[in-house]
Every structure is written in structure tokens, then in C-alpha cells.
Specification:
- By secondary structure, this protein is mainly β.
- It has two domains: 1-89, no CATH class; 90-389, no CATH class.
- Helices cover 12% and strands 52% of the residues.
- It has helices spanning 75-79, 129-135, 157-163, 197-201, 251-256, 304-311, 361-370; strands at residues 2-6, 20-21, 28-29, 33-45, 54-64, 69-70, 83-88, 91-94, 100-104, 107-110, 115-125, 142-153, 166-182, 208-225, 232-248, 259-268, 272-281, 289-295, 298-299, 313-329, 333-353, 356-359, 384-389.
- The chain has a 21-stranded mixed sheet that branches. It has a two-stranded antiparallel sheet with strand order 3-6.
- A hairpin with a 3-residue loop joins strand 16 (259-268) and strand 17.
Length: 398
């Protein structure tokens, strides 16, 4: 068994860290090769002496061309000029609020080919959706995250091991992301300004720079309990394939390239193909972004499992041929346009009556009378202009 200690972070929030080797391990050694097999490692945080250590089992380490070692040497001196590979069964821990269990699966870090492989990384809630809703006073998201087959190439292993700083040329992974929100709980009316995804990324204390992330066959599922209907509705995107470039929170990297670009395709609700491009500014406190995309054709009735509980509307018939959109925005507003092409669209407006969802007769009649049930109509295509002033109590995608 080996024991390691991580030093406290500095005032800027980053680790000074040199992971020190316990003095009881050895006094001094001059070796050409090291092979350590099936070892248990305990990692203690010196800043929190009473906290249980992170335990990594079945660790294997081999290294060659090693410099002279002595008691109290730090890991940087051990690995800077040696060829080595580190593997283990992974580890897990609870978050500070004990709401989630984080698990890092089996891993291999190879200094010879500058690669990192992780079988999986998960963040699992420790309560179900009903129990979660009972513990909160204002709306929050409950996350269930799983990332499989994580591969990073051309990483700087010295920075990763000694400074907890990740720099890599490319990452490949398969994500499964599930999010739940209960809209029957009181809203959180605090300001969400500064909490766009690209802004939150800059607040992460762990410095990282990944030039490109490739996502393969991913899944995103958003489930919501609606306020009016009291029912559950789900939106999902499957077979997600995308590339994300310039994923970083390191200031000098951002100064030379300030745009994170996501280019993704996905299956929307299992009924149509979606393509979207997002451009997010990393160096701007205004939260500047550009989003464009398109959704292919599908039977409009297929949307009912989503829009009936969440929108209190039912589509009785119709065909969606294509939807295209573009938006440019910031913390406070968004402008753009959308073109929604469809044929023979008929809807019903719904209401909740003694716990049952029923048709609103008059509102349905007026909605269908006012709505043009075809676009284009008489050869003229309508494009709607978007000029939206953001409610700052709402999140990025609301």
C-alpha cells in the first residue's frame, strides 16, 4: 500500500501541487526500472485532514529511465524524465452535499504515447426523482450522467500528474445525460446572468485545454413534471455525434482563440434528424453566442408525448417538412429568425379538469381559425423574426 498527500491550493484556487511520497516508503534509491503491481493507493487531502482518503485499488505502475529518488521526493521529479504507465481500477466518492456519487472507472495513463483511457465516468444521484423534489424548496435540476470509453490523446502527463492541469489534443467519448426538473416546485427567481455554459466553464478551478472533443452515439434526455398538467413530459436526442473545438478555461489559450464551436447531429425524439452549430464566446462576460440549425421532416402528431403534458396542446394532424433557425444573443437578449414549413396542421388546446386533461373547445376553434395551417401558403413562405428579451431568472435553454 502507498500513501500520497495533495497539498492545499493557493490563493488563486489552483494546486501548487507536487504530490509527495510518504517518507516511510523509502529513504533513497537509484533504479533503472520500477514495476509495482496490484497496489492499493490512499490519497489524502492535507487541507482536510479528517476527510476519508480516495482509495484506488489494483494499481499497477511501471517506469524506466528513472532519476535518483529520495525520501520526500515529489512526483514531478519521479515522472518528468522517465517512461511510465499507470493503471488502476478507478475510485469513487460522494459530493460535498452527498447528493451524488462520482465514480471514475478503470484507467490507464501512458506517458510513452501521451494518452489517457478511462472506461467510464459517472455522476449518479443518491435519491430518486420523487425524493429529490421533497428535499428542495426551489426548482433545481437532478442530473444522472454517464460518460463511456473516454480517450484522450497527446496529453501532457507531467502537468496532469503534478499540477492537476489537463492539456490534450483530442478527446473521444460517449455521453448519456439525463436531466429531471419538477416545475410544480417554486421557481428560483435569482439572476442567471453569468451562468451560460461557456461562462460557468470559466469558473472551474481545474485548468483544462482540449483542442477537440468528439462525441459518438450520445444520448440526452430531459424530463419535466409540468406545473399545469402535473404530468411528465420528455424531450430526448439520441445518436448524437458532434465535434466541439477549443474547450478551455486557460486564459492565454482563450486570448488567441476565444470561440468554442459545437457542430452536432442527432435524432430528435426518434422522429427526425437535427443539425445544429453553436458558437460560444469564451472571453466575454456578456455571454455572446450564435446558434443555427435545422430539423428535418416528420409527422407532427409524433410531438404529442412532449407537447401535451408540457404545452397543454395536442396536434391532431399535420406534417412538419422542415424547421430552420438562427439566433445571435447575449446575457439579456437574442435576435434571429425561424422558418417553419408544414402542411395541414390542426391542433387542440387542452385544459386540466378534475385531474383529467380535456379539450378547450372555444380556444381550439380560435387557435385553428387564426393559425395558417400551411406554410408556404399560395406559394409564399413565411419567416418569423425573433426579437427576444431574456428573463434573467431563466436558464440558457429556457
Amino acid at each position: 500500500m502507498l500513501t500520497f498527500y495533495t497539498k492545499p491550493k493557493n490563493d488563486a484556487g489552483y494546486s501548487n501541487s507536487e504530490i509527495e511520497i510518504d517518507n516511510n516508503y523509502f529513504d533513497e534509491a537509484q533504479v533503472n526500472k520500477v514495476d509495482v503491481g496490484n497496489t492499493k493507493i490512499l490519497i489524502y487531502n492535507k487541507a482536510k485532514p479528517g476527510k476519508a482518503p480516495i482509495v484506488i485499488n489494483h494499481v499497477k505502475f511501471n517506469a524506466s529511465e528513472i532519476q535518483k529518488l529520495h525520501s520526500g521526493t515529489n512526483l514531478k521529479n519521479l515522472i518528468s524524465n522517465s517512461n511510465w504507465q499507470l493503471s488502476g481500477d478507478g475510485f469513487s466518492f460522494l459530493t460535498e452535499n452527498s447528493r451524488y456519487k462520482v465514480n471514475v472507472g478503470a484507467f490507464i495513463i501512458n506517458n510513452n504515447n501521451a494518452s489517457l483511457l478511462i472506461k467510464n465516468f459517472t455522476v449518479k444521484p443518491q435519491v430518486n426523482e420523487v425524493a429529490f423534489s421533497k428535499t428542495i424548496t426551489h426548482q433545481q435540476d437532478l442530473y444522472n450522467l454517464e460518460f463511456n470509453n473516454i480517450q484522450l490523446t497527446d496529453i501532457d502527463t507531467r502537468l496532469l500528474m503534478t499540477q492537476l492541469k489537463l492539456e490534450a489534443a483530442e478527446a473521444n467519448l460517449q455521453p448519456f445525460i439525463k436531466i429531471y426538473r419538477d416545475r410544480t416546485i417554486a421557481e428560483d427567481l435569482s439572476s442567471k446572468v453569468g451562468k451560460y455554459p461557456q461562462q460557468l466553464m470559466q469558473t472551474i478551478k481545474f485548468p483544462f485545454n482540449i483542442k477537440k472533443i468528439n462525441i459518438r452515439n450520445g444520448l440526452i434526455v430531459y424530463t419535466e413534471k409540468a406545473f399545469i398538467s402535473q404530468k411528465i413530459g420528455t424531450v430526448f436526442f439520441k445518436n448524437i455525434n458532434s465535434s466541439i473545438s477549443n474547450v478551455t478555461n486557460i486564459r492565454n489559450v482563450i486570448s488567441s482563440n476565444n470561440l468554442l464551436i459545437l457542430d452536432a447531429t442527432a435524432g430528435f425524439m426518434g422522429i427526425s434528424k437535427l443539425h445544429s452549430v453553436w458558437k460560444l464566446a469564451l472571453n466575454n462576460s456578456d455571454g455572446n453566442f450564435e446558434i443555427s440549425g435545422s430539423v428535418g421532416g416528420f409527422d407532427a402528431v409524433s410531438l404529442n408525448p412532449m407537447i401535451e403534458p408540457l404545452g397543454m396542446t395536442s396536434i391532431k394532424k399535420g406534417r412538419v417538412n422542415k424547421l430552420t433557425y438562427n439566433l445571435t444573443g447575449n446575457n439579456y437578449s437574442a435576435k434571429g429568425s425561424e422558418t417553419f414549413l408544414y402542411n395541414n396542421l390542426k391542433i387542440e388546446v387542452l385544459k386540466l379538469d378534475s385531474g383529467d386533461v380535456k379539450k378547450k373547445g372555444l380556444q381550439t376553434f380560435l387557435a385553428n381559425a387564426l393559425m395558417k395551417n400551411n406554410n408556404p401558403t399560395n406559394g409564399v413562405t413565411r419567416t418569423e423574426e425573433i426579437d427576444y428579451k431574456r428573463d434573467i431568472t431563466k436558464s440558457f435553454l429556457t
